[in-house]
Amino acid sequence: MSDTVTLTTSQSATIYGTFAAAGDFAATMFGATYTAWRALQPDDQKRTLIAATRYLDAMAWDPDTAPDFTTRDAIAGTPIGPFAQASYELAVLIADDPTVLQAQDQGTNVRAVGAGSARVEFFNPTSPLFGTATVLPPVIERLVGQYLASASSTGGAPDGQAAGCESPFSAQSEYRRWWPY
Length: 181
What we know:
The protein has 6 helices and 4 strands; from the N terminus they run E-E-H-H-H-H-H-E-E-H. The protein is mainly α. Strand 3 and strand 4 form a beta hairpin.
């Protein structure tokens, strides 16, 4: 159920869902970012939807379940498809913070941070390069993450990282640190 939106400058682009449905979606949501998106001029709303669609289309999608725009657009959802909803959510995020699309990595390797005896604790890092993190904002990942292409463990990931975030050394008691550090 894609739609072609046309700006007042005559440029047009195809988006997931429809412009009207994006407005209805934002109207039913609560929060400052949705209010800010609704306050944009229609051309700017369309621009955020175009940017969201282009960003989503640039991801590596599973060739068996979501290989192209037409297939992704046809995936059913309730009440709107997941790609349409993801593009609406992403458009709202773009309106709030245009730099959201430049995020390099949504992953982390910080387990704990301290203050009183200053302490930082790390575990195996997450990274899109290793397939253990996404560059998509978490709300978008929840909507369409299941359709992303699987990461390969042959991408240079160290042993023990591609499958999870537990080090193969953690099970060995002789590798544990004891007080005092």
